[in-house]
Known about the structure:
Elements lengths: L1 E2 L10 H23 L2 H7 L10 H17 L2 E8 L4 E7 L13 H15 L5 E7 L3 E8 L2 H11 L8 H13 L7 E7 L9 H11 L3 E6 L16 H11 L3 E4 L2 H14 L2 E7 L1 H23 L4
Parallel strand pairs: 3-4, 3-6, 6-7, 7-8
Antiparallel strand pairs: 1-2, 2-9, 4-5
Helix pairs in contact: 3-10, 4-5, 4-9, 6-7, 7-8
Amino acid sequence: MTFQSPWLLLGLLLLPFLAWAYAAAEKRRRRAAAAFAAPAVSASVVPRRPGWRRHAPLAFAWLAVAALIGALARPQVSIAVPAEQATIVLAMDHSGSMAATDVAPSRLTAALDAGEAFLGKVPKQVRVGGVVFDNVAEAVQSPTTDRAELKAALRDAMKPSGGTATGDALAVSLEMARSSGKKVPSAIVLLSDGKETHGRDPLPVADEAKKLGIPIYTVALGTASGTLPNGDAVPPDTTTLQDIATRSGGEAFTASDTSALSAVYKKLGSEVAMKKQPREVTAGFAGGAAILLLLASALSLRWFRRLL
């Protein structure tokens, strides 16, 4: 929580002085009562003492004053809201290693299913584009809010073949994200299962994305023991994908099975297209102060037949 006028919170320093003044007044009252009646007869003169009830209404009143001071300082909290006109580029690897079956029924099928689930989690007003890559990168769908069109484009293009051109895929994705405009919040979600074998180095592209304020969220798909039908080992390149995410200002994930991949995409779908927005909660503080004052007055009226 932050405050737009935090200097007004200095008013809270008055509360300890008020408490000290109240304690001093109570001490004088007790002395006056003792002077009025000897201890031996005080029980008959004042048969019932209010005890803690004497202080409760004033305590609620002090809390109300503290809440009012907080309201004057205009408190605000940050909440996650859908980013208006945001653009996400979904870059998906369909190299030959995506035919591995260590992620059932295959890495490619699991990637497509999770990608469609991801699109279902992204707010409807957010535009999503599609890039697929093997040894070359191809933009298959410009950013759109038409989820069915994007799903169809990905299904048509995602066939396991060739090598892995991660850097080229990021460059195409970055250009697509930039085309949405400088003031439009953008992000790239990259899913891959292997080390780049073709094209440009992906790390300088990640550095460029950082400068442009476009984070890259990477998902490393597969297990270290993953193999192709011919026995070739195809472990995911988690190190490079982690470096890409870190250098771009994004976040890296690893998915070793279908459920893990779905969980990652669910998280990304609810977070990548969201932004933090300050919301003022002055009314809540003021309302709380009013309730506390009403409570203090009600207790005082019930117990002592006076407001406070």
